[in-house]
Design a protein that fits this description.
27% strand, 162 residues, alpha+beta, six-stranded antiparallel sheet, two-stranded antiparallel ribbon
């Protein structure tokens, strides 16, 4: 909080702030700097989240959904096909170059596709969900803890809650 000095230096009281101006004492003035900083920080955080998704969309346009889905099909056969598991984590060394372009934190294999985790925190995980080429390109099943939005044929933006 900044103080504007009227004529002389002295501490105003809460009750006497109005009379302090008349008497020439300093008066506290809330400049709102803390409020402005909070608003800017909130805006930057929202922009960073939206900016990440826009960056992913641009990368997807550059790489192509067919290439990402074809790489997903090869990876599926290599790591997940016939295993009977409900989920498998794919080692980073095995990620195809099309997956690496998105800079995922983790790649997971599900029976119906791959999740490329791009942002994670204690409560949520967001990223790309890729249905391998030659799989039925249907919308993944949404649930109370999972949302999907189509970005391209067989490629979705997902949000998983924990």
């Amino acid at each position: 909080m900044r103080r504007w000095r009227c004529f002389a230096r002295s501490k105003p009281t809460a009750a006497g702030a109005a009379s302090a101006i008349d008497e020439g004492r300093s008066v506290p003035v809330n400049t709102g700097v803390a409020s402005i900083r909070w608003i800017l920080l909130s805006f930057l955080m929202l922009e960073a989240c939206g900016g990440r998704r826009e960056q992913v969309t641009r990368t997807l346009d550059e790489v192509g959904t067919a290439v990402v889905r074809e790489d997903a099909a090869r990876l599926y056969k290599q790591f997940f096909g016939g295993s009977g598991n409900a989920f498998a984590v794919i080692p980073a060394a095995a990620w195809p170059s099309s997956f690496q372009r998105f800079r995922p934190r983790r790649v997971g294999a599900y029976p119906d596709g791959f999740s490329l985790a791009l942002t994670t925190d204690a409560d949520t995980e967001e990223g790309l969900f890729v249905i391998p080429l030659h799989f039925e390109a249907r919308v993944p099943r949404a649930a109370a803890d999972a949302r999907f939005e189509r970005l391209g044929e067989g490629v979705y933006w997902y949000a998983f809650s924990r």
